[in-house]
């Protein structure tokens, strides 16, 4: 799972890719729509989408009427993996804070 999380953050370190993920969170879109919405050129958007595809953050499908057109959508699985990791981190910190609170309360002057 750590490798998935590392790859997730590595891929989303780029602000354009984060914006693409946000846009795809609203619904599927074509590459041209994503390029226009982000202000990226078509070749730059193609590179970003290739990286997102290879990392498994997005999926693409061909439009039945026109095989040249691809529609991109967000895949939920990588987000679920990151959420699971964040839940583990949060649980660890909650435990640590609980222990610290107990320690402080025991040392409080009465």
Automatic annotation (TrEMBL):
Q: What are the protein's GO molecular function terms?
A: DNA binding; DNA-binding transcription factor activity
**SMART domains for this protein:** HTH_ARSR (SM00418)
Q: Where is the HTH arsR-type domain?
A: 1-97
Keyword set includes Transcription regulation: yes
What keywords appear on the UniProt entry? DNA-binding, Transcription, Transcription regulation
Name of the protein in question: DNA-binding transcriptional ArsR family regulator
């Amino acid at each position: 799972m750590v490798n998935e999380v590392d790859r997730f953050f590595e891929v989303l370190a780029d602000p354009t890719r984060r914006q693409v993920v946000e846009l795809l969170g609203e619904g599927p879109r074509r590459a041209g729509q994503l390029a226009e919405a982000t202000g990226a050129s078509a070749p730059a958007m193609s590179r970003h989408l290739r990286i997102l595809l290879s990392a498994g953050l997005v999926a693409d499908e061909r439009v039945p009427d026109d095989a040249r057109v691809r529609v991109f959508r967000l895949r939920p699985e990588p987000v679920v993996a990151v959420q699971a990791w964040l839940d583990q981190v949060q649980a660890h910190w909650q435990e640590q804070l609980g222990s610290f609170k107990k320690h402080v309360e025991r040392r409080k002057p009465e």
